[in-house]
Amino acid sequence: VTAVIHAAGVLDDALLADLTPERLDAVLRSKVDAARNLAAATEGRTLSAFVLYSSVAGVVGNPGQANYAAANTFLDAYATQLRAQGVPATSLAWGLWGAGMGESLTDAERRRLRQGGVLPLTDEQGLAALDAALAEGRPLVVPVSLDLAGLRAAGAAGALPEILAGLAPAGRSGGGVPDRSALAAFQRRLAQLPADERREALADLVARQAAVVLAHTGSDTLDPHRPFLEAGFDSLTSVELRNRLGAATGLRLPTTLLFDHPTPDALVAHLAGQFAPGDGDRPAPEEAAGTLGTLFREASATGRSGDFFGLLVAASEFRPAFRTSRELPAPVPVVRLAGGTDAPGLVCLPSILAISGPHQYVRFAGALRGRRDVAAVAAPGFGRGEPLPATVEAVVSAQAEAILAHTGESPIALVGHSSGGMLAHAVAAELERAGAAVDALVLIDIYSHDVEALAGIQPVLSAGMIEREDGYVPMDDTRLTAMGGYVRLFHGWQPTPIRARTLLVRATEPMFGWSRDGDWRSSWTLPHSTVDTPGNHFSVMEEHAATTARAVDDWLAASAGSPAAPGPSSSAPVSSFSSTPSSPLEPKASSR
After folding, report:
1. Closest CA to 500 of 574, 413, 434
2. Which of 80, 272, 347, 457 has the greatest count of CB atoms below 10 A from its CB?
3. CA dist list (Å): 290 to 261, 286, 476
4. Is the pLDDT of residue 109 over 70?
5. Which segments of 251-297 are extended strands (E)?
6. Is 340 exposed, middle or buried (0-12, 13-18, 19+ CB in 10 A)?
């Protein structure tokens, strides 16, 4: 052995507050452990090169990649340490390649890199950069393709890392990095403008910053009345827009800003109101969430999440309830997430977790944009001022009515992830009774809802919620008691046979912290086909959402016109399907 090239890398992207020991370990192991093992294995040898593949994410940062940035920053420092010990080490902090790990990035991640002025390297450019970097003999080289126009645009938006500021100096057009005095002047101007002019200035600010976050071209416009979810905002991009608006206005804004104000027009009105006299005396937005969230975190930390679920179930009985949709303050909302021409269109039903909602399908829908219509229907009771359903029939009927009003007579496929699969199946049965055209039912990593299984999975369930509570929606008293109410309603629920063809999508990785004996995989006792897709229970709809969506799309196309399977199926790899009868998987895990 005369040279070492360490080119390993693993991505497990998430917001900083969503990182877990498992997510850190998955990413750091391939970088930190592997590099140290290679150094130990070649200690004392005469090497011509010891090359570490790092990433520009550790040099300039990249939203949602804190664990990946940390892992690569270690490699950069480790190369310097090895050189001091006589090892010819070089850490290459690569920019984006068009191939390799770059292929696994989502469109949103690619957009964020382009917005920061980082362009993908071709294979030829990358190999030439490798040769040039090794010839330099430095411990750290950053081979990256930079677009100066993109850097200037990022600087004008206040989103350019300090380390790149010298590459995009401010020009006559005002591009480049805005200084603190310019921001302060803008904020003073906002405060001093008449109300109408202030609202106009804020509307322009929201439109421009939203366009940057979504990588819109000049021809794209943001409809002020169109929900942010329909425009393509997910948890990560929602927080990014909030950060940009907070930096520009100097206001303290909650992470749930776009949930609380779901359209640009509503957001502008809220921001304008923050400049009104007396607003400085208002409590911070986060303080209005209530006390149950704090108690829930404490119960989870002390291993008493099961007891707390019981409290939420009991508390939910004191919430106002409705028995028919006529008793709701407004129709159940259906949010359109993507458009396309292929039939059937998809209607997605969120799970009953406190942090769930139509937003959990944004990444899934993004992978099908231009191919199929994708919409998501909310579960009543999770919004402020909404009553809970008094019975399962009440929520199923209300959601079925909303879906029919949205889709008309067009054939649809219902999609449910986790416990949303229960709602999807129940709504499919209700729509079939009404004579609606239900073409298919897709259940994504659904688990059974027996009491024993629920008790066994509650620690994992609680941990997963707490990790994601700083995302799009607040985990407040309303949403926590709504979760308790739905758990109470669906206690002991069992599905009835339906005519629609059914697909079970199973995650191929167990949830972290899984401790029960037996098969941990998702199961379904009624006739279905099965497809396995990468990821765990949560990540199949997060970083692996695009792969999950493509598997569903392939199955819908391949099985069009096929009758429902005669019995529970055996598993099949992604893009191949089976309807061979087999025994239901046991033991069952809990509903999510």
Report:
1. 413
2. 347
3. 19, 9, 6
4. no
5. none
6. middle
Cα separations in angstroms, 280 against 273, 277, 283, 514, 546: 11, 8, 8, 46, 43
Q: Tell me the pLDDT tens digit for each residue of 396-447.
A: 999 999 999 999 888 999 999 998 999 999 999 999 999 998 999 999 998 7
Q: Are 435 and 499 in contact (CB under 8 A)?
A: no
Across-strand partners of 5?
51
128-184 pLDDT tens trace: 999 999 998 899 999 998 887 777 766 665 566 777 777 766 543 344 445 566 677
Whether 245 and 253 have beta carbons less than 8 Å apart is answered as yes
Tokens 């790149």 locate to 164
Which is nearest to 107 in space by CA: 574, 550, 546, 553? 546
CA distance 545 to 563: 27
Look up residue 548 and give its two tokens: 């999950």
Strand order in the sheet with 140-141: 3-6, 49-55, 89-94, 140-141
Unique residue bearing structure tokens 């919620």:
465
Q: How far apart are CA 399 and CA 579, in angstroms?
A: 29
In whole angstroms, how far apart are CA 368 and each of 99, 195, 352, 499?
22, 41, 24, 25
Q: How far is CA 527 from CA 43, 385, 391, 431, 561, in A?
A: 58, 39, 26, 18, 16
pLDDT at 573: 44
Alpha-carbon span 135 to 137, nearest angstrom? 6
Q: pLDDT (tens digit, 9 = 90+) per residue, 206-221?
A: 988 888 787 765 556 7
Residue 93, SS3 per DSSP: strand
Q: Using an 8 Å Cβ cutoff, are 225 and 265 in contact?
A: yes
How distant is the alpha carbon of residue 360 from its chain centre?
6
316 CB neighbour count, 10 Å cutoff = 21
What is the DSSP pairing of strand 145-146 with strand 334-338? unpaired
For 106, the token pair is 């989502």
pTM, two decimals, is 0.64
C-alpha to C-alpha distance for 572 and 277, rounded to whole angstroms: 62
Would you say 368 and 346 are in contact if contact means Cβ atoms under 8 Å apart? yes
- DSSP-derived secondary structure for 516-545: -SS--S---SSS-EEEEESS-TTGGGTTTH
SS3 308: helix
Cα distance between residue 546 and residue 175, in whole Å: 35
For residue 412, the model assigns a pLDDT of 94
User: How far is residue 381's CA from residue 354's CA, in Å, rounded to a whole number?
Assistant: 11
